[in-house]
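Q: I'm building a small set of examples for a reading group on sequence design. Run inverse folding on the following structure and report the sequence directly after it, with nothing in between.
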């Protein structure tokens, strides 16, 4: 499969939102105690705000002239923190591959582009977070070289 990965264009918002709806539904279906079901207009508003944020980047993967993957990233500067070493960190806030294109190298291509942008921005590391219920994503990220940095635990009370 031929995949082109690039920075998204504002006129692709509708296609981006349609893919992000899939990950939003995955979250609300698996953890309705945490995640709200989102409407397309709510995700569209978020995407418009991301396009206006100079610290964030939307990357898309396309195949056969169709957007089939989306990655939302940002550069985070840690400076003069009481506990943490100064660092520039490239963070993947969201990554989603259209369910019809999964297991075809789209996610790997998006991660490779994030690595390239991370190096270009002189970042020390690439980070992302993943919900424990999303076992297939967790396995995918570990297979791509990510290591578990920490765990965020919860307790219902």
């Amino acid at each position: 499969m031929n995949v082109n990965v690039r920075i998204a264009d504002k006129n692709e918002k509708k296609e981006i939102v349609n893919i992000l709806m899939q990950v939003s539904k995955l979250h609300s279906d698996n953890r309705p105690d945490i995640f709200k079901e989102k409407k397309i207009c709510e995700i569209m508003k978020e995407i418009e705000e991301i396009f206006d944020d100079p610290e964030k980047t939307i990357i898309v993967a396309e195949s056969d002239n169709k957007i089939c993957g989306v990655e939302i990233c940002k550069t985070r500067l840690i400076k003069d923190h009481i506990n943490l070493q100064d660092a520039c960190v490239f963070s993947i806030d969201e990554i989603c591959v259209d369910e019809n294109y999964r297991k075809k190298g789209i996610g790997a291509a998006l991660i490779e582009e994030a690595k390239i942008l991370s190096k270009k921005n002189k970042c020390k590391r690439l980070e992302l977070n993943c919900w424990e219920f999303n076992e297939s994503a967790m396995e995918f990220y570990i297979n791509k070289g990510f290591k578990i940095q920490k765990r965020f635990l919860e307790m219902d009370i």
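The chain has a mean pLDDT of 94.
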